[in-house]
Amino acid sequence: MVYPSGPGADADGVLLRTRGVAAVAAVSTVAAGLGLRAAAEGEVAKYGGDALYTLLLFTLVVLVAPRVTAPRAAALALAVSWGVEFLQLSDLPAELSRRSTAARLVLGSTFNAPDLFWYAVGAAVGWSAGHLARRAVRPDRPGVRRRLREAEVSGRPPRPTEDGSRR
Q1: Helix 70-87, helix 42-64: angle, nearest 10
Q2: pTM of the model
């Protein structure tokens, strides 16, 4: 999702930086969810929480697989969110929710069709944030992404450009 942005930037450093940003984003998303629950009630809290749930899944996907593209991370987070929601059509989540607070937070208990839309909103926010983060760190010169990908695959630093730099 993020590529080296300057001379001497290596793939391992980029992966660590990407994971660090994803970890901070995950903690911030949980804090936002807790803050939303404390400050709001009703539909705002419920549907905002749905969007944040999928956004948290997005950040966890990037944390585990930092090379994933934003569209793929968003699609996976959305698929998991929708899967959990459709699972609520069975009795399993409700039964587990009665036994465990953690299960109630992760699985919910009852199916609610509007939740599907708000999960998509959370995935779209993740996709957009991932895209903006990538654009912020990557140079906008032609061929830069290709050279950086070649360097990641070969393990060698990028070839010098016409001006002699390795960006």
Answers
A1: 130
A2: 0.75
Chain center to CA of 47: 18
The first and second tokens of residue 88, run together, are 């609520």
Asked if 129 and 22 touch (Cβ cutoff 8 Å), the reply is: no
Tokens of 162: 């016409």
Q: Write the pLDDT tens digit of every residue in 105-129.
A: 889 888 999 999 999 999 999 999 9
- Reference 29, options 1, 58, 66, 55; nearest CA is 55
Instruction: Determine which helix (DSSP H) or strand (DSSP E) holds 135, and give its type and residue range.
Output: helix 114-137
Rg, the chain, Cα only: 19
The H or E element spanning position 155 is none
* Phi, psi of 59, rounded to the nearest 5 degrees: -65, -35
CA dihedral sign, ordered 130, 67, 80, 27: negative
**How far apart, in Å, are the Cα atoms of 80 and each of 61, 75, 135?**
11, 9, 27
Residue type, 42: G
The count of other CB atoms within 10 Å of the CB of residue 135 is 9
Q: Averaged over 141-167, what is the pLDDT?
A: 61
